[in-house]
Specification:
By secondary structure, this protein is an alpha/beta fold. The chain folds into 2 domains: 229 residues, D-Maltodextrin-Binding Protein, domain 2; 128 residues, Periplasmic binding protein-like II (D-Maltodextrin-Binding Protein, domain 2, 3-Layer(aba) Sandwich), CATH 3.40.190. It has 11 helices and 12 strands. Strands 1, 2, 3, 4, 5, 6, 7, 8, 11 and 12 form a 10-stranded mixed β-sheet that branches. Strands 9-10 form a two-stranded antiparallel sheet. A hairpin with a 2-residue loop joins strand 9 and strand 10.
């Protein structure tokens, strides 16, 4: 298991891209200090040298976000879509279609015409829905436009929660079963919680409450419907700034400080309590956009170029910094390879942690 998780260090969040220039690691987490480094997207794509210029688009485009409104996938896709509209000259209508850990919306896009007029908001859950038995679709069914950002995991509680620290929460989980809201079963943030549970084998397995998106999970914690929420920090950051939620632990590359309505707020790092997890940080999910793999190459090129420019735009870069997201910027074959690599990592992690009884070996996916 340690071997699997060590692979994540080198890959899952592209930590090297955020620190290779000698910057402060906290800057890569989008704090109010230095601006995060931006990784220039790979603009290569299959058949890009032979594709003829398409007469596209001639009408508006639909984008399906397979999670609820307000979560990281929704926020990223809507912000990218607004920038893409400037490049394409048409409107992009964004529709939320949550269900079954992104499988419902992903299946919908796959069943639509593969003509470029229906785009998938592409979350990291494409790496897990097959091994979790939620869909037969995998990265092989999609061609990446851009994988834009990584979303570090956090565990947060209501402001008046009796749990002041992650140690308090762990102590409570050893005494009784708690209810913890997550995006959905097998999601990246469930796996983040699993890292802590692995270190604390005496904990009672919490009741995981699927919420259809990280923002919904955070709201459940704000309302007091659950004991805690495991979500991406960007999905709950506004509740944190307002003081409605308190982050007990954060799985970025270091502790960070964010600006709150009543002053600076220190966000504690998981490795301050579990230093043995440092090799696994940062830890969370990723979000991008994709179209069906057999979309006309010329159409794909137009969409990919617009997505890359949207990622590089000042508005999107500022958005990621404000929301504490980590920029990735992988497109074309580079993005497809990334989705494949993280599929092997995540599917085996879910199997090894006991979240699924289906071995990735059944699909010919080698152990990392």
């Amino acid at each position: 298991m340690k071997k699997i998780l060590s692979v994540i260090l080198a890959s899952l969040m592209l930590l090297a891209c955020l620190t290779a220039c000698g910057g402060d690691p906290a800057a890569g987490d989008g704090t109010s200090g230095d601006k995060p480094q931006t990784t220039a997207p790979d603009t290569g794509a299959p058949d890009s040298g032979t594709a003829a210029k398409a007469d596209f688009p001639t009408r508006d485009i639909n984008m399906i976000v397979p999670f609820g409104a307000g979560g990281a996938t929704d926020l990223i896709c809507r912000t990218l879509a607004a920038e893409m509209e400037k490049e394409l000259g048409v409107s992009i209508a964004v529709t939320n279609m949550p269900g079954s850990a992104s499988a419902v919306g992903t299946e919908y896009v796959n069943e639509a015409a593969h003509d470029g007029y229906t785009i998938l908001g592409y979350p990291t859950d494409i790496t897990s829905i097959k091994v979790m038995g939620q869909s037969d679709l995998t990265w092989e069914d999609w061609n990446t436009l851009v994988i834009a950002a990584a979303i570090p995991t956090c565990i947060a509680v209501r402001k008046d929660s009796p749990y002041q620290t992650i140690e308090d929460l762990v102590a409570a989980m050893k005494a009784e079963q708690l209810a913890i809201a997550t995006s959905d079963s097998g999601c990246a943030f469930t796996r983040g919680l699993g890292l802590i549970l692995q270190e604390e084998p005496d904990c009672v397995q919490p009741e995981l409450i699927p919420s259809g998106g990280g923002a919904n999970a955070a709201l459940s914690a704000v309302k007091g419907d659950v004991d805690a929420a495991a979500c991406g920090l960007p999905e709950c950051i506004e509740y944190v700034r307002s003081g409605d939620l308190r982050v007990l632990t954060y799985m970025g590359s270091s502790a960070i400080t964010v600006e709150g309505t009543e002053g600076d707020i220190d966000i504690p790092w998981v490795c301050d309590v579990y230093p043995q997890l440092e090799e696994n940080m940062p830890f969370g999910g990723w979000v991008g956009m994709a179209v069906a793999a057999d979309t006309d190459p010329a159409v794909y090129e137009i969409l990919k170029d617009a997505a890359v420019k949207a990622f590089e735009s000042e508005n999107f870069q500022n958005f990621m910094e404000q929301k504490t997201m980590v920029p990735l910027g992988k497109s074309g074959q580079d993005g497809n390879d990334w989705a494949e690599m993280t599929t092997y990592i995540n599917s085996w992690m879910l199997y090894d942690m006991g979240f699924t009884a289906t071995s990735p070996e059944e699909f010919g996916w080698a152990h990392p």
